[in-house]
Design goal:
By secondary structure, the protein is an alpha/beta fold. The protein contains eleven helices and twelve strands. Helix 2 links the parallel strand 4 and strand 5. Helix 1 packs parallel to helix 2. This is Oxidoreductase.
Length: about 375
């Protein structure tokens, strides 16, 4: 990771080199589930949805959580990379992004006990088997919520299989042309479930102590790094805290970050929560950024991305100038206004980062 020298250009629009890849600016499209795939296959919706951000100058575009196995989907409509047939549809999207100078990454995920659930507009909780649902797995037999499926506790063979699934998905991601891979270990999904004592009551080598609870994530990261090109960046998304007593917290996150650094991780995507319905979150503008700032301060060798209620370019720029983060991930702001980057550039007095065909739309004079 390299930092730019002082210049008049706002940090938000300054390139950032991470490992062997240079991002054109510091804005990242945060992974957001679209619940629009069939059998894990990307389609025209995903091409248009993700492609618009390539045309609008977003520095790094991430897909939604992309399942490494069928039972790892959050919903039946999630994207997947568990089968070779899923490579080509995603490859069309990466080809389009690259043709327009964009950088694109894939978030690899397994939902664990939060799998087999409805898309938000179709209901809440478990999808019955007769409606396309499936048996879910987790660290133990605790369900996330009474409306969610009861998981089957994973055996060591299951753990080895899931680790291999992540590795195989990373290989497919390379063939599909992605520039970045992110391992999803946040928001109460499988790898986060193993991290938190609130979801992991195992008594074997994958439960109990901190060293045991982080074991699966470290093994997955090791497997992904071994199957992902050495010159391409590897991100990990973490929930810095469960926002619940006795759960995972920011101090454990710092210790984990120090370990991930030695596993070939280049950047951490710092979010929070999602592990338990008992969470009590203090919400406000940039409310998760203090966690990112802590990790960036304690583990400066890693690039750090922050996310959450960062809605204006001025706020994003302030966080960068303050040294709280290296990258700003935007979800709802970009979903609500795909031209957010254009408006931010105009507000900050820089040329909007658009493709030539769109330049007329950014001019303020005839």
């Amino acid at each position: 990771m390299t930092q730019p020298s002082a210049s008049a250009t706002p940090l938000l629009f300054t390139p950032l080199k991470i490992h062997g890849l240079t991002l054109p600016n510091r804005v990242v499209l945060s992974p957001m589930c679209m619940y629009s795939a069939h059998n894990g296959l990307a389609n025209e919706f995903h091409q248009v949805h993700l492609g618009q951000f390539a045309l609008c100058g977003v520095g790094l575009i991430f897909t939604e959580a992309t399942a490494v196995s069928p039972e790892g989907r959050i919903s039946p409509e999630d994207l997947g990379l568990w089968d070779d047939s899923q490579i080509l549809p995603l490859g069309r999207i990466t080809d389009f992004a690259h043709a327009h100078g964009a950088v694109i990454g894939v978030q690899l995920a397994h939902a664990g006990r939060k799998a087999s659930t409805h898309a938000p507009w179709r209901g809440r909780g478990v999808v019955p088997v007769e409606q396309g649902g499936w048996t879910v797995i987790g660290p133990d037999g605790q369900a996330f919520h009474e409306l969610y499926p009861v998981p089957v506790a994973m055996t060591t063979d299951d753990i080895a299989r899931v680790t291999a699934d992540f590795a195989a998905a990373a290989r497919r991601a390379e063939v599909a042309g992605f520039d970045v891979v992110e391992v999803h270990a946040a928001h109460g999904y499988l790898l986060h479930q193993f991290l938190s004592p609130l979801a992991n009551s195992r008594t074997d080598s994958y439960g109990g102590s901190f060293e045991n609870r982080v074991r699966l994530l470290l093994e997955v990261v090791r497997a992904v790094r071994g199957n992902w090109p050495s010159h391409k960046p590897l991100f990990v998304r973490l929930s810095a805290t469960d926002w619940a007593p006795g759960g995972w917290d920011e101090f454990q996150t710092v210790e984990l970050a120090r370990l991930l650094r030695y596993e070939g991780v280049d950047a951490l995507d710092i979010s929070s929560g999602g592990l338990t319905p008992e969470q009590r979150i203090t919400v406000g503008p940039a409310y998760q950024t203090p966690f990112a700032a802590l990790i960036r301060r304690e583990v400066p060798e890693l690039a750090v991305m922050t996310v959450g209620m960062i809605d204006t370019p001025e706020r994003a720029e302030g966080l960068l100038l303050n040294g709280d983060a290296d990258l700003i991930a935007l979800g709802r702001p970009l979903l609500g206004d795909p031209h957010w980057m254009w408006k931010a550039a105009v507000a900050m007095g820089v040329k909007p980062p658009v493709v030539p065909a769109y330049e007329r739309g950014t001019r303020t004079t005839p």
